[in-house]
Every structure is written in structure tokens, then in C-alpha cells.
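Input C-alpha cells:
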């Protein structure tokens, strides 16, 4: 189960926030025993891009055999 401060992968684009599927965020709050999550997405410099409340079907836990990938942020 995903817990607070876990890093997670976004499973779908969120154009409203300028986020793409595959972006990595940090869970800052768990809602209703994992039915939803508040997730913060940051640039590599640590600047907040978005804080979004997402359902469990919109994110997944990071796997140990994955590598991060960088992309340029586009305006939302």
C-alpha cells in the first residue's frame, strides 16, 4: 500500500497541471485508507509544479528496477 512520503508514478496526463504520465511525485497525504492521495510534483530543483488530489487508479508505486527520466516542463 502507498503511504505518506512514498514516491509514486502518475499513470495519466493531467494537462491542467502540466503533468504527463510517468511523472514522479511524493504522497503528502493518504485519504480514506488509500482510496485517494494528495501528491506533490516537483522540479529537479525542488520547486513545486503541482499539488493534486488523485485516486488510487491514477498513481502507482515506484518499482525497484525503474530509472527516472527528465523532461522539460511546459506551461499548463
Amino acid at each position: 500500500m502507498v503511504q505518506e512520503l512514498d514516491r509514486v508514478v502518475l499513470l495519466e496526463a493531467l494537462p491542467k497541471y502540466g503533468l504527463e504520465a510517468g511523472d514522479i511525485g511524493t504522497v503528502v497525504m493518504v485519504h480514506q485508507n488509500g482510496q485517494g492521495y494528495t501528491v506533490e510534483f516537483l522540479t529537479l530543483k525542488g520547486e513545486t509544479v503541482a499539488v493534486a488530489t488523485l485516486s488510487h487508479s491514477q498513481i502507482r508505486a515506484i518499482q525497484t528496477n525503474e530509472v527516472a527520466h527528465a523532461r522539460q516542463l511546459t506551461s499548463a
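The chain has a mean pLDDT of 95. The chain has one domain: 7-61.
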